[in-house]
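Worked example 2:
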Amino acid sequence: MKALPAAVVLGVTAATAFFAGRWSMDSGSDANASKARSVIPATPTLSGKESAPPRPAESRKTVRAANAPEVLTVDQVRALTREQRLELMRKGALIFDGTSQTAFLEGVIPALAKDEMKEATAALGTAQNRGNFPAPAVWNALWKQWGRVDPAGGLAHFEKTPQGKTRSDARHIMEGWYETNPAEALAWAAGPRASRFEVVAAGYALTRSAEGSVKNLETSLLARQPDDPVIKETLQDYFDLASTTTGATDSGSIYEQMPDALKPAAWSVAMRRLNYTDPQAAVDWLTKHAGDPGRDYAQTNRLIVEVAREDPAGTVAWAARLPDEPATAEGSAAHPVVGAFAVWRSKDPAAADAWLQTQPDSAWAAKLRGRIPAQQGQDPFANPQ
């Protein structure tokens, strides 16, 4: 086999020596701990005339922290064998300090090949399962690299092992794919996508292709079928983009200005965003748009409980005027009046029950009457969330 460059061998040797000390410390042996400390060069303490500031000519590379590991460049790691690269991943996964771990793996992860991604992921996952959680930046870099070398495989891995995987993780896979081959990524995203992580990845591809233009993103979304889940996924980016690049000041204004064809998918997004901005603006918007296509009362739960704590009776009276939902076997559990009534009844059950008896038949009224306790025992309205 062809000999490795001397610089590469020295770099790997130095990194191995450093982490050998760390692993010895983890074993719990005082003797091993002493040996571990011996591989970390001591920083001399200077005082008086012996002190001197770093020379201006010194580079940042020479002013290293005493415990910073020796790191390799991407090119150096690429020159290693497959097993040597994976060994560096296993060593890096055991670093406890997130900053040091990120620095050590900075040159390793971008050098990983397609057939090394699963084992590299397993190295981090094993360390995490045993209590050493990798830095978020390390996971992000790994997903991005998977997108560069094998995006389909990365997304398939997510679908097979979804536990712990997030929306952001899938977007990092698309980030790597889009930066490497945007035409291929967009062609893939243009097709119908149904699985959770594929929908997220496709939405991010559309957002990247818009290049910061709300109108460009609108065009991409309007080209898809109205019930395409990618539309609702991408509308989060649409609202973010509109709020930072247009004159719209809030989610309600953005909703008003968007094409009518996108509004059904945007209703729940607008309501959810209004929940964490201004309760009064959210109440006003809900009053105006409760009859719009795409209404999703489930997105109002947090808002209703918040405003009902201030004025339970008034909130119930207002919510009762909102459009009803179709009757179901379980009643209208998501209608805003249900949550508001629960808050009111926890404060004044006699007044709340008396009001309910005056209400005409409706899906939500039937639901509430069915929950009134007929006898002493656990009250289903007690301690509303």
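The two ends are 67 Å apart (CA to CA). Confidence is low (pLDDT under 50) at residues 1-10, 16-68, 374-378.
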